[in-house]
Each structure stands twice: as structure tokens, then as C-alpha cells.
TrEMBL record:
SMART domains reported for this sequence: DUF167
GO cellular component, one term: cytoplasm
Annotated protein name in UniProt: UPF0235 protein ADIMK_0892
InterPro entries: DUF167, YggU-like_sf
Organism the protein comes from: Marinobacterium lacunae
UniProt cross-references to Pfam families, sorted A to Z: DUF167 (PF02594)
Highest taxon listed in the record's lineage: Bacteria
PANTHER family the record matches: UPF0235 PROTEIN C15ORF40
Record-stated family: Belongs to the UPF0235 family.
SUPFAM superfamilies associated with the record: YggU-like (SSF69786)
Length: 99
């Protein structure tokens, strides 16, 4: 089974490459952007608010507590890698297959 380049599995955790668009009109996954998932969020990129909002949004989307979502790289930029521990659900909007 081949995996798309925007995600990979690491012992039950999902590693997701994201391209963030802060200050959007609504929170949504708006498709793929190169080798990343484009995620639009309403929070502004000020004082870590966008990162906190992204964690909250992804936790809700994948059915995990916020403590199970970690930004592992790209804290200060739009391109981020996020680790989601044992997601209980996968959003229909993303072509992700279980490992």
C-alpha cells in the first residue's frame, strides 16, 4: 500500500504535514497544497493563537484530546508537521488510510 506524501503513520500516531492559512473566514480543510494538507483557521497568527487553535481544531476533527495533538515542527511558520496520537476517526475530506 502506498502512502500519500502529506501523512505517514508512526506506531499508531498520524504525522500530518500542514499548510496553515490563518485569519480565514471559517475553520476547514481546503484540500491539498503541494505535499501538505491546506488548513484554514479563523485565529490570527499572533502570540501562538493560530497554533493553539490548530491543535483544538485537529483534536476535534480526529476525535482525540488536545493533549494528543503536538506541533513537532514549524511552530513559527505556515508549514507545520503535526503528530496526532491514535486518532479515533479520520475525516472524510482527507484520503488517509489506516496503517
Amino acid at each position: 500500500m502506498t502512502q500519500s506524501r502529506f501523512y505517514r503513520w508512526d506506531e499508531g500516531a498520524l504525522i500530518l504535514s500542514c499548510h496553515l492559512q490563518p485569519k480565514a473566514s471559517k475553520d476547514e480543510i481546503s484540500g491539498l497544497h503541494a505535499d501538505s494538507v491546506k488548513i484554514r483557521i479563523t485565529a490570527p497568527p499572533i502570540e501562538g493563537r493560530a497554533n493553539a487553535h490548530l491543535i483544538k481544531y485537529l483534536a476535534k476533527l480526529f476525535g482525540v484530546p488536545k493533549s494528543d495533538v503536538t506541533i513537532i515542527s514549524g511552530e513559527l511558520g505556515r508549514a507545520k508537521r503535526v503528530r496526532i496520537e491514535n486518532p479515533s476517526r479520520l475525516p472524510d475530506t482527507l484520503p488517509i488510510e489506516r496503517d
